[in-house]
Amino acid sequence: MHNKRESDKPQAWLITIMQALGYYKTNPPEALCFGVSHMGMQAIFAGEIDKFDARLKLMRDKGDSFPAYFNSAMKAQKERLELGPVTRKCSTFNLRRV
Fold first, then answer.
1. pTM for the full predicted model
2. Tens-digit pLDDT profile for the chain (98 aa)?
3. SS3 of 97, please?
4. Between 12-20 and 49-62, two packed helices, what is the crossing angle to 10 degrees?
5. Which of 34, 66, 67, 74 could form a disulfide with 20 if both were Cys (CB 3.0 to 4.6 A apart)?
6. Would strands 94-96 and 87-89 be described as parallel, antiparallel, or unpaired?
C-alpha cells in the first residue's frame, strides 16, 4: 500500500490553515475539503467565484501567518461594529449604521 507524502496532498496548505483556525477539532481533513468545495459551489451560484478565489489565494499567500491576520481582521471588524450608530450626511440620504 502506498503511503501518501505531504507533497502528494496539494490541499495540505489549506488543511493546515483550517486546523490553526480550529476547524479540525471536530472534523477529519476530508470534511474540510468537502465544506470548502461546497462554499465554492455557493460562490459560483452567487456569481462571486472571483471573490472566493481571491480569498483562497490570500490564505495561500499568507500561509502560516494567515490565522493571525484573520484574527486581527475579525477583531478590527468587531471594534467597528461596537462603535454604535453612525450618521453620515449624503447628498440626498441620511445613512445610519444600525
1. 0.61
2. 444 544 456 778 888 888 888 776 666 767 777 888 899 999 999 999 999 999 999 988 888 888 898 888 888 888 878 776 555 555 555 555 55
3. coil
4. 80
5. 67
6. antiparallel
